[in-house]
């Protein structure tokens, strides 16, 4: 069936985590008959195990649906799934750039939350028509009127006609589709123009090479066309292309307004970047679509195979992972303690966790991860600047003029009764007070400038515990500021373990040093001999303890993750000795490398 461009609707669903985005997507797939009820697996769009387990959406996916509206006309809908977490902001933004509209799902019991706002801003940046939808009205605690008022007051969108739905039961979901058909504009491009297709995702297929997901903004792409990736200048011939509905369907061409996949025997993984523009050599475009940027990772850590012989496997796994995730970066690194591995850069902490877990699960690797670090700007006395993403590579103090660290602007949305504890927490993390915004009678938005390195430590967990999980947190990079920073080394049995070095604020160094030594003492199992643990600043020992007692329960306090992280830790712990690394004469378990994170300064 041929459907005219005026009857195409490209849209995303955006929401704060857990407000029901995936559930709504499932219902829409069912309603449009894309999947039969029997085929319906819960949360079909979230295809990765890991996502399902964690209940977060990481990968983008796009499906083509046909929908016959109440006006009797048939529309072609492209539903583009966006990842929901702040770490994936760039991918969200790119996937939104492929759309003309966004369905904004707001939980009728929770109301507007931090990421609701963040996503709305991204949608506005991309000039999208935003359609609010109130979900979970089946819940006894639902208060749709209050939420409608919030959407109008906080976001400034008219919401009195927003569909009131239950994605769970399917109630009124059809109204969402009617809303999309009526209010989302058709794609604007022209099929006779030079071709411009936006890459918003890619994945690696071992038979066909890299599969690229695109939205054709202008012109068309056909099987056999020579295509060019405008940022990387690479040229390939299209072997196959098509759409997903959600099964893969092959087609002869993708025309303006369509969203689909392209296979072109792409073997070089470096050629494909999310956000880049594809054009054809027969109808070449002069300019790229706007918005492409290289991503700067915010958090780095070292990843090492437990078994050194698997270094090559780790490299291959990272290369493959990079295909579906252009924001991952890595380069070889060696550590005296851990051998050969990679320094990897991530967009944020969740991103790091997810990549690590996928590497272990999908590639059957056992990894040791070092504590995450941010990127410091180290200004030397000769006037030059070094970017330091690994504490071990910080030069000696006599060469350093000053060091700058990244600060983020943190917005914490919270019930008003937790404002006090949150301010105390932020203050203890070297935060600088900016503002408290009044949202409504019950809620406030607390804004602080905080060093990213403090968030990399145990900020999330602390925040959760001091607000009983009621606060939601969002951060964005602000700028670099000068701080009194220094490297703290940890010595085991007299040897510096490079993978345990951290960069710390001088005022906190003594306390942290002491706690880390204590913590390592708990975690590192008893050896055949007594092992001194020391913390040192520039060669000067500031804390010391000895390992000799029986091993204690590692879970008690180490690496204060949330429940799932603790479980992960427990599992790793069960595997026991396997995950040990012999460092000099001392066996160190994985937890030790993370323990330096969960340091209580109080
Ligand atoms: N009672 C009720 N529960 C719902 C409704 N819609 C979704 N849920 C539940 O809310 C939880 C979160 O729903 P998801 O669809 O996974 O939320 P999401 O926004 O996709 O979450 P992320 O993928 O983490 O961003 C699940 O347990 C759903 O079963 C609804 O209409 N009513």
Could you characterize what this model shows?
With 602 residues, the protein is of the alpha+beta class. The chain folds into 5 domains: 5-183, 3-Layer(aba) Sandwich (Rossmann fold), CATH 3.40.50.300; 196-280, Elongation Factor Tu (Ef-tu), domain 3 (Beta Barrel), CATH 2.40.30.10; 299-370, Elongation Factor G (Translational Gtpase), domain 3 (Alpha-Beta Plaits, 2-Layer Sandwich); 377-483, Alpha-Beta Plaits; 487-598, Alpha-Beta Plaits (2-Layer Sandwich). The chain is 25% helix and 34% strand. The chain is built from 13 helices and 32 strands. Strands 10-9-15-6-7-14-11-12 form an 8-stranded antiparallel beta sheet. Strands 20, 21, 22, 23, 24 and 25 form a 6-stranded antiparallel beta sheet that branches. A hairpin with a 2-residue loop joins strand 29 (531-537) and strand 30. Helix 3 packs across helix 4 (114-125). The radius of gyration is 26 Å and the shape is globular. Mean pLDDT is 84; it is low at 54-60 and 554-561. The structure holds guanosine-5'-triphosphate. Guanosine-5'-triphosphate is lined by residues 15, 17-23, 55-57, 84, 135-136, 138-139, 166-168.
Feature tags:
602 residues, Rossmann fold, Alpha-Beta Plaits, 5 domains, 6-stranded antiparallel beta sheet, globular, binds guanosine-5'-triphosphate
Named once each, the bound ligands are: guanosine-5'-triphosphate
Overall mean pLDDT stands at 84
Name the poorly predicted regions: 54-60, 554-561
How far apart, in Å, are the first and last alpha carbons?
67 Å
Number of E strands: 32
What amount of the residues lies in strands?
25-35%
| Form type | globular
| CATH architecture field of the largest domain | 3-Layer(aba) Sandwich
Write the CATH homologous superfamily of the largest domain. Answer: P-loop containing nucleotide triphosphate hydrolases
Main sheet overview: 8 strands, antiparallel
Q: Which CATH class of the largest domain applies here?
A: Alpha Beta
